[in-house]
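Researcher: Next entry in the queue.
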Amino acid sequence: MKRKTPIKAIRAKCIDCCGDDLKEVRECTITECPLWPYRMGRRPKDDEHVDDAS
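Model: Structure for this entry, 54 residues:
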């Protein structure tokens, strides 16, 4: 089995969570999810704030 990078594993989890619908991943409104900033398979930009307190 090929190992995934953490970012690719997060992307796969988001796709699974949205019923394998890529459009739903893009339009996801569950911003409380700790994976939300990474859902598009990229790290958030430095200027985007990721709130770890919630």
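Model: The chain has a mean pLDDT of 88.
Researcher: Noted, moving on.
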